[in-house]
Amino acid sequence: MPTILQLTDAHLSPRNELFRGNLALIHALAAAAPPDLTIASGDLSLDGADQEADMAFAAEELGRFPGPFMALPGNHDTGSHPHTMPHQPFDATRLARFQRHLGAGYGLHDLPGWRIIGLNSEVMGTDHPEEEIQARFIMEALEGTEGRRLAVFLHKPIFVTHADDPTFDYWSVPPQARSTLLPLLNHPGLRLVASGHLHLHHEFQRDSVSYVWAPPLSFVVEEEEQQGLPGVRRGGALLHHLHKDHVETVLLEPEGMEVPYLGRIRHLTYPRAAS
Asked: Quick check: 42 and 197 in contact, CB under 8 A?
């Protein structure tokens, strides 16, 4: 059966040695048993939103993974909605930097019986021209599915409670942007929605769809900063096994992973940021 390796929140930078060992451990697993597709679901760089060197370094390190590869941006790669990241709003300059090193930021990949759709969650709700381009891509990606099952990947969860939650916060896609995603969420073939961003590992089921939050390759966040969010604070990656009509997700957590709390390393990562 086809397999997808999902990496997320690696937060790589040439300016420190953080988290590289974790990536190397997952790379060793991928080299020993290459997946059919590797998806890096955002925050690949520590501060690619403003640092060219960070984006270039992340692209170089992730480019070592075997086989087909899809990179999706996170808020620390391209900035995000100005409501949640006023100091680094999503804009054309930041998007262009990501695209120079890691591609369009959205994409489609077909595997036997499945269509894999990757999306840029950071443009959602911004009214940037790229948002309309991606909206057209979503509709085109749904054409010709012809019985295929669908798996959707993006950095931020579409929602953390329920799809109609009006809360506009740091943790999920802006509520006003979710209507664009309804053709995906309501598609009869949808079986998986996989995201990162929360630095939590969690999985829940809604009808026939599995919603999965991937664990980080970097750090976890103190409980008091994520009150009300479910999930466990563990590091690693996910391997998604695509069966005929469902997805089996396995946590990859090799021995030797080091996943500290953000408070211990904030001075080396985001000393002025709130998260």
From this structure: yes
